[in-house]
Every structure is written in structure tokens, then in C-alpha cells.
Amino acid sequence: MKKWSKLGLVSVLSVSMLMAGCSSSSTGGSSESGSKDPIKVGVVTSKSGALEAYGMQEINGLNLGIKYATGGTNEVNGRKIEVLVEDDAGKPDEGIKKARKLLEEEKVDILQGSANSAVALALLPLAEEYKKVIIVDPAATDEITGKNFNKYVFRTGRNLSQDAATGAKYAVDTLGKKFFHLAPDYVFGKSSAAAWKAAIEKSGGSVVQEEFAPLNTQDFTPYLQKATQSGADVLIVTWAGAGGASLFKQINELKIAEKMKITTGIPDIAGIKAMGESAVGLTGMTAYYHGAAKNPENDWLVENHKKEFNGAPPDLFTAGGFTAGIAIVEAIKKANSTDSEKLIAALEGMSVKGAKGTYTFRKEDHQALQPMYIVKLEKKDGFDYLVPTLVKELSPEETAPPIQK
């Protein structure tokens, strides 16, 4: 079978996390630094549905991030941290209902979630309504820190424009000038297509056609046929969720790589397995792979994740949850409070050390600037999947997205 030795890589998956700082006493929150009540972190994310795997990675990372930042005590400012998780099933209405339950019944101090961009967008108005800080990760749609931004919104996760800034110039320079984009038919896919189109055109290429398939699609044959008939040089795939396994399997079966070049984001480990050995040599961008990040925080994450999860390493979205957990703890320490206004002041411009190195919340839009990666898929002994091997780490400044709020 033909290897993807010339394939590029465009960011694929996404998902989103929410942190809400506790409101001041005037809005009903328990924010006094002298309180001994537990700090409650309410998580709204996908524990079922197409993005279940991403949600679980996020949750595992969040718990480990809190553990790391508190030195294993799960306590900050003399208060224990409790994590309460609700399943949004990837549905915005369900996410709103579960968030209100956490806010009104459980009286959580902080909200965190979701793996789904549409759910994350639906939760943003609740940040203003309840005066809670929301830290989003891993949902990647630009609108979260763009046109839907409000002052309570912060994001540790990368956005789709950061993906595009990492991969578009590489794709235009090395793969071709004309692109066909296949993405899921919901907010993540539409935002991804817009971000990549802008970045490709800025780099001297063009997108000749875009197609959006339902998130639960299993037969991608019609879309792949359109791609090969479009006159494009390169197929861009940005996908999120379980359907990605079927998509990449069909790309292999239909031998699309023999008809045009392919660029896609390196997915989680399950997604890499689905791509098959024909993806050997694929080179492009990714938001995170545990073997590519070189820093003490990531070393700790890898070691402790393997201890807690039967030898399994952290995955694509574990890193975002881990960094969100650290940011929650560090913001509370700096503010010496869970009061929302104090947390906002603490977080704006703040840098934290996370799974990929230094993350900095840009003051203008609260988007975390962070390292990104170009990697190459290679066969290695001892692995049952193709291993993303570091080609280049790009700095937070190199991949900084435009301010869109």
C-alpha cells in the first residue's frame, strides 16, 4: 500500500473546557479567602456520544493537573478541591441544563468543560449570567475567544486559528496550492474551515471546495469522491469524534493518497491506529503528543498518568485538562480568592507551566498562547501505532492567532 510520505497535517480535533471562578459574596458565592468550605469544580463535558473519548481524556488531565499544582494534597488556600462531573452527551441543551444544575444545586465555584465546541459556546452566556470565569479546553472553535467572547471567558486550549497558523504555510509550501476541505457539519467544522481558508490564502494557496458531513457519518465515500473530482491538489481533513476512525479507514481503502495529497491533524492514539500503516511518513502539525513535549510538567504527567491508568500515556486532550487544572489552582493562589473579579485580574496576562511548556493568557482575548508541533508518523518497536516524532516545535509567538473578539 502506498505510504503517505508526502502528506501534511492540519489540525483536526477539538473540544473545550470551562472554568468558572466563584462570584463575590454579593452574587451568592463563597469567595472569602478564610473559608474552609471545599472549592467545587463543576465539569460539563462529553462522557457519552461522539466525543466521549475526548471528554474522558480531559477529565483525567484535569484531576492530574489539580494534583500536580497542589503537591498531591488537592487543597489550595486551606480548602479542599472537589471535582463534580456531568455528562453533556455532546448536546448544547443538555450542557446548559447540567451547568445550571451544578451552579444552582451544587453551588460550584468553578465550571470546566466541554469536549464539544457547540456545547462550549452554549455555556458562555451562563458565564455572564452567573458571573463565573470560564476556562475553555479543549473545544477549539475560534468563536469562543472571538465573537462570542465575554470578560469571564479564558481558554487554555488552542483555537483553530492556532492550528492553521501552525500548518497552513507548511501545507502550501510543501503539498500544493489548491485544497479541498472536508469537515464535520457543526460549529467546530465550520470554524475550522474558515480558519484554514484564511491561513491558506494568506500563504498563497486557495480552497476550491468545502464539504461538511454530519458528525455521525460512517460512509464517507461520496465526500471522498467529490474530493478526487474537485481538481484540488490536497485534501484537508479536520474531524472530531468517533467517526474519524471510519473516515481514515475509507481514505486508505479508496487509496485517496494515490490520487491527491492529504493533510490532517494528528488525532489521539485511537485515531492514529485507525489511520493504518499506510500513513507512515505523514508529516504535519499537532496540538500535543506526549513524546514530543519536553518539560518537567509533561514528564510528571506522563509518569503519573501511566501509574493511574494501567500504563497508558496521556493522550491528545489530556494535556489540555492537565493545564486547565494547573491554571485553576494557580489563579486561586494568585487571587487568594475564588471571587470572579479577582480571578479575572489574576488570569489576564498570567503565564502557567503546563503540559506543553509555558501558556500565557493574552490580555486582549484571554486566549492562551502556547507551543505547537510539526511531527512525522513513524514505525517504532514496542508501539502498536505509528508514533508522532518531533520535527519542529513552534513557539507561542509563532502560532499566535489573530485577535477576533
TrEMBL record:
Residues 1-20 form the signal peptide. PROSITE patterns: PROKAR_LIPOPROTEIN. InterPro entries: BCAA_transport (IPR051010), Leu-bd (IPR028081), Peripla_BP_I (IPR028082). Keywords: Signal. It comes from the Bacteria. Residues 38-380 form the Leucine-binding protein domain. Belongs to the leucine-binding protein family. This is Substrate-binding domain-containing protein. It comes from Tumebacillus lacus.
